[in-house]
């Protein structure tokens, strides 16, 4: 099936009005960015604002990748709790990362306001829900850890959580008041438009097929044979990394995550299903996430087939899960379905590498990149502008490590999901 088809609710609502032309001639700029998602476009915006010339090269259109088709949930922080980072990275480095990652939604909100991006951002909080009673201890330990670090994260007992979500299947959970949601495609296109207005050269339909050192600069060549010479380069292709840097592609697993959007809920149901309008993600080995958007549609996602999905019929397991939580959904029907590639790394954390003199790569948000990728635009721009060093990036620089037996990842992912589902059943 054609992976270029993009059937998300965001595209169906408002197809992008602007297309960015392919690069057709030789260009020279201070900075070249490969990949027109949130990481690349936020870095581009901040770098042009710092007075640098920037060229962004995107294989399809800005927002075509995960950035324009994700769940739209704003989830502060990373996969592990703050104390884990302090222990692992030491007080200073760990605290810097915790401060940065857990305030990413605040930083995103500032950038959206400054660039005046209309993307329906709401800050009603993000809930982590314990699905089984055996999950409560871990979810509560996370809440306590964040609270001990002064974060506004409250425990919700079963009745309190039931009020916010409209059913009593969950055992309890926490509410992080800093979280929220938005339309991710509008956010990504808004960043592209802001960067372009500030002077960045943004090119769609421009896949970079070669990247090599040429004298004191980097030469990037596109599939149309056009070139960019740049002093510094940021590669941010995330789950869509192709053969441009083979070792980069082999250092992550591009796991598909799938999403269903319901038809708009009628008034009585819109008041009953997630009336608090928080974003929510479940505990468990196979994570389900959901929210009700500003058009009263339930947007619910999770693992699905490891191939492109364009029809709700391909995601029956997700619709059945939703109907178990809210049986009234039976009568509503699903408007659309889609999926995209999440970059999963071996430690479930984002990775930042210096691959050569002035050549950098950042990827691997493991499903939590919306706020973090945009927030990282500023420090990345400082580095690309030559004003800071790799160690100043909040994600500590590491050397790239290929995942062993990488070519077998589809089998590995299928096996892991099947095993996790089986474990879930027995945990129940
Ligand atoms: C279905 C789904 C649901 C998700 N839900 C959430 C969520 O609710 N909340 C959250 O925080 N995160 C979520 N994520 C993760 C989030 O979307 C990503 O972390 C984030 O968008 C990463 O942005 P990026 O710019 O690094 O990568 P991307 O947006 O994937 O952009 C990479 C771009 O690189 C381009 N590219 C690749 N190779 C080349 C090349 N050789 N030349 C030129 N261009 C190239 C691709 O075309 C692509 O557009 C989800 C992801 C998916 C797929």
Automatic annotation (TrEMBL):
InterPro entries: FAD-dep_OxRdtase, FAD/NAD-bd_sf. Keywords: Oxidoreductase. Residues 30-381 form the FAD dependent oxidoreductase domain. It holds the Pfam family DAO. Gene3D superfamilies: D-Amino Acid Oxidase, subunit A, domain 2, FAD/NAD(P)-binding domain. PANTHER family: FAD DEPENDENT OXIDOREDUCTASE DOMAIN-CONTAINING PROTEIN (PTHR13847:SF281), SARCOSINE DEHYDROGENASE-RELATED (PTHR13847). This is FAD-binding oxidoreductase. It comes from Mesorhizobium liriopis. The lineage of its organism: Bacteria, Pseudomonadati, Pseudomonadota, Alphaproteobacteria, Hyphomicrobiales.
């Amino acid at each position: 099936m054609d992976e270029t088809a993009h059937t998300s609710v965001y595209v169906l609502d408002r197809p992008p009005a602007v297309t960015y032309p392919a690069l057709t001639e030789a260009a020279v700029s201070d900075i070249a960015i490969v990949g027109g998602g949130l990481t690349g476009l936020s870095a581009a915006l901040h770098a042009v604002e710092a007075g640098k010339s920037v060229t962004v090269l995107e294989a399809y259109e800005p927002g075509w990748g995960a950035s324009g088709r994700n769940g739209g949930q704003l989830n502060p922080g990373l996969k592990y709790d703050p104390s884990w980072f302090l222990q692992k990275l030491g007080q200073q480095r760990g605290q810097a990362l915790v401060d940065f990652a857990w305030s990413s939604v605040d930083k995103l909100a500032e950038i959206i306001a400054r660039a005046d991006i209309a993307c329906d951002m709401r800050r009603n909080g993000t809930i982590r829900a314990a699905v089984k009673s055996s999950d409560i201890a871990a979810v509560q330990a996370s809440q306590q850890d964040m609270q001990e670090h002064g974060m506004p994260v409250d425990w919700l007992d079963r009745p309190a959580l039931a009020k916010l979500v409209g059913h009593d299947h969950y055992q309890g959970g926490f509410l992080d008041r800093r979280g929220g949601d938005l339309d991710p495609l509008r956010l990504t296109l808004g960043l592209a438009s802001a960067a372009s207005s500030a002077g960045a050269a943004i090119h769609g339909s421009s896949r970079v097929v070669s990247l090599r050192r040429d004298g004191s600069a980097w030469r990037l060549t596109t599939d149309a044979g056009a070139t960019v010479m740049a002093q510094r380069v940021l590669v941010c292709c995330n789950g869509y990394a192709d053969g441009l840097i083979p070792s980069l592609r082999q250092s992550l697993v591009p796991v598909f995550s799938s999403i269903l959007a319901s038809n708009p809920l009628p008034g009585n149901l819109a008041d009953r299903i997630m009336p608090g309008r928080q974003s929510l993600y479940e505990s468990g080995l196979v994570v389900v996430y959901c929210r009700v958007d500003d058009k009263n549609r339930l947007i619910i996602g999770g693992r699905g087939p490891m191939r492109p999905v364009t029809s709700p019929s391909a995601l029956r397991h997700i619709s059945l899960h939703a109907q178990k939580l809210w049986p009234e959904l039976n009568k509503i029907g699903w408007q659309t379905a889609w999926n995209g590639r999440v970059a999963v790394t071996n430690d479930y954390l984002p990775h930042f590498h210096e691959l050569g003199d002035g050549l950098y790569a950042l990827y691997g948000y493991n499903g939590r990149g919306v706020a973090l990728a945009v927030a990282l635009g500023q420090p990345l721009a400082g580095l690309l502008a030559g004003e800071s060093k790799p160690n100043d990036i909040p994600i500590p620089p590491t050397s790239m490590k290929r995942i062993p037996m990488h070519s077998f990842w589809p089998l590995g992912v299928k096996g892991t999901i099947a095993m996790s589902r089986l474990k879930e059943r027995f945990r129940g």
